[in-house]
Write a structure and sequence with these properties.
Shape: globular
Distance between the termini: 28 Å
Structural class: alpha+beta
Largest sheet: 5 strands, mixed
Number of domains: 2
CATH architecture of the largest domain: Up-down Bundle
């Protein structure tokens, strides 16, 4: 397998899951401005969507969209217990969290990364504050999103939360979020993923 990535982008989530599951994949860095891989390939020809993550499977098929990729990887190694079994209520809870993170948190960061008006920034920040308050309330009584066990949703939340420092969004009003970030960040697989993407000193 090959995981196409850009350091610190939402591909960090499947990168963490690969390592948590003990799966092997070649990492291929993508310059999202030039749309070229580190090998000089046209990334748009590989993934017409033009963004990461993208996972090239051994049979030549390409899988895109982070929530789909992390579930696929988790299901390759069910013994790692990174996702509940299909057909269970717990799996639906996982879908619920992955969708919430993707639509309510991930996309709310987009205006903060782009040259938007101050009005747009204020709207995005207000939305993030509401959404993170909801997550923090949940995490006050749970170590992880699904309870006491780490899942692929936690890898996604950790990734999205890490963007706060890049755009000046302060997470300190929510001690439960800071504790979660510290707890997840201390995991060996997370440390390895950060190091491999050049995100640690």
């Amino acid at each position: 397998m090959k995981l196409y990535y850009s350091p610190g982008a939402c591909n960090l989530s499947p990168h963490i899951v690969l390592l948590e599951a003990g799966l092997d994949a070649e990492l291929v860095r993508v310059d999202l401005k030039t749309k070229l891989t580190e090998h000089g390939e046209d990334f748009a020809a590989i993934n017409p969507k033009g963004y990461v993550p993208a996972l090239l499977l051994d049979d030549g098929e390409l899988l895109t969209e982070g929530p789909a990729i992390v579930q696929y990887l988790a299901d390759l190694r069910p013994d790692a217990q990174l996702a509940p079994p299909w057909g269970t209520r717990e799996r639906s809870r996982l879908h619920e969290w992955l969708n919430f993170i993707g639509t309510e948190l991930h996309k709310s960061f987009s205006p903060l990364f782009r040259a938007q008006s101050e009005e747009w920034r204020e709207v995005a920040i207000a939305n993030l504050k509401r959404r993170f308050t909801y997550v923090a309330t949940h995490l006050q009584s749970h170590d992880y999103l699904l309870g006491e066990c780490f899942s692929v949703a936690d890898a996604y939340l950790f990734t999205v939360m890490s963007w706060g420092a890049k755009v000046g969004f302060d997470l300190s009003p929510w001690p439960a979020l800071l504790a979660f970030q510290q707890r997840v960040g201390a995991r060996p697989a997370v440390q390895a993923a950060l190091q491999q993407e050049g995100l640690t000193a």
